[in-house]
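hiii so my PI (J.) wants the whole complex modelled not just the main chain, which honestly fair. so below is everything: two entries, each one labled with what it is. i double checked the lines twice but i was tired so who knows lol
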Amino acid sequence: MSLIEKIKPAFWDESKTTDDSQIKLFDYAGIWKYALIGTSTIALLPLIIMFIYSHYEYKKALKLEMVSPISCFVSNTRRSLTSFLSERKAALAFIAEDNHLSDFEEHRRFAEILANLKSAFGEFVDLSLIDSNGIQRAYAGPGHLPIKDFRDARWYKKVNEKGVYVGDITKGFNGSPEFVIAIKKEMDDGRSFILRASIKAETLQDLIRSLAVMPAFDNFIINEEGVLQTASRFYGNIFDKSNLLPSRSSAKLEVREYEDQSGRSLVLGTALIEGTPFRFVTVAPRDDLMRGLNTTEHRFVVLLIASMVCVLVVIVGIVTNLVNRIYEADKRRVAVLHDIQYTNKMATIGRLSAGVAHEINNPLAIINEKSGLLKDLISMDKGLSKEKAVGIVDSILSSIERCSAITHSLLGFARHLKVRFETIHLENVIREVLVFVGKESEYRSITVEVIAREGLIPIESDVGQLEQVFLNIINNAFAAVDDGGRIDIELFSEDPEWVSVSITDNGHGISEENLKHIFDPFFSTKGEKGSGLGLSITYGIVQKLGGKLDVKSKKGKGSTFTVTLPEKRPGDI
Amino acid sequence: LKVLLVDDEEELAATLAERLSLRDIEADWVTCGMDAITRVGEDTYDVIVLDVKMPGMSGLETMEKIQKIKPEAKIIFLTGHGSVEDHEAGKKAGASFYLMKPIDIQVLIDKMHEAAKQ
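here's the output for the full assembly
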């Protein structure tokens, strides 16, 4: 036996129809499914809604949690970079303020100033002096002193315009990366000059490296065109063009999530260093940031699934148990109904037996007397004529025929105790049933008339059950009418696929109050004589055969019971 | 002994009467309650044998009516309908015997004598 067979509840494969009685059990597998779906929905829906809501809220909190350290780091780094550059600009401004133009034009003095700057900051490479015409007037540094004309240079225009300039990182004299800071000094006599210094770019790299707090972060600087100004772990070396082009409009600090070309999920933080072409960028793989936080979420999901499974197991247990109990009760109900139906049928036969005995005893008595007379005439030697003897024997034979007609009818009725569908003519069934009440109608002068309308079709039904139905209704009609009363039985068809039988009596009728209850089990107006089951069972049988049972009645006027039956057996409709 | 047989089965009543006559018992027969009452009014019978189930007037009704005319009339029910209730009702109404069809003629004659002596 497989595991499924072992745990499968008893009701699962229960046939919806019992063998021959056609008393239906409920569809337990269906009830079980509906109950399970309904209960599970009620129990799990709030849990799922709560989970979705918490998940949403958690994600929101998580995002804040993730954004906050990056935002903080970017902001700090920007401040440090701004401060670094401001210091260098301030130093140049101080030198311009502190010296006279003629001091700069003295080569030795100019070289001394550069030496001082180098000793103070270390990273200064060279220093130039450009006059208000854009001509380089003095130079200190590793190169020579070429007379240069910067009038058309972009940086020269910018420094003239804004008074200060910080340039992109470019390759210097010996190929190492450098960037330029230039400041303009307006003199009292209306002239002006520019001090321009080249600074080693690696100091920026060192500064960024020294500020890095998280090893997973990739920190670098790009310019406005997206060209790397310092080396990046993810995007290449200095001077490589990165595909990162942060929105230029946003001078503010910006943190956002994005997916790079390789499909990697990243978190990007950027900030523009004001007054420079530099934009500080930090990039961190999202997974690294979320590692700890995701674990919590995974635990939460596992917990949710575990609780859902627990709830489901309990629900399945409870529902199975409940349905099983209903099933057991229903099985008992069907068994009791079986018994009641059988008992009712036997009781009907019992009620008939007294009448049947009378029908048989009368011809038997005739046989008894006729044969007794024959014997008397022979034994007493009273001169029995041939004609007389034949007359007596004929009378005996006709009485025997009467007996056999009765026994045949009775046997026919008993034969139909077993349920069997066959093609039948309802009129024949009615006539067979009327045999049992024929004498009663005669004794009580009750007129019973059967009218079969034209065009009646044969139907597929169970004779035995129909006999019980009609016998119950006709017996009730006999009980309702007084001696000399009338019972009309009409067979007709209002619908091509249905045949109706109406049994109308002119008896006592049923009160409106009682009419509501006549099909209720154990409801009886006959006192101790009735079980109160007859009409209830009749109703049940008619329904089982796929038919309808209607009743119309008026107190004091009589009742009409109409049985309407389908042409085909219930399962075929 | 003079008896009246009342039974809706004409053949039965006639044959029984004939057999009783063969045994020197004077037996008249009728087939309904009304005729029985008429006969009882016209003649005197030692015993009246009544069927219970008869069309028109039942055996019990017939007995009631006979008892009104002849309260001393001795009545035996002879029926094919053997329900306990009918038996009880017949005895209660004052019938001497309640007998079942078919019956041995000697038993019937004995009961008639017995009833007549009561």
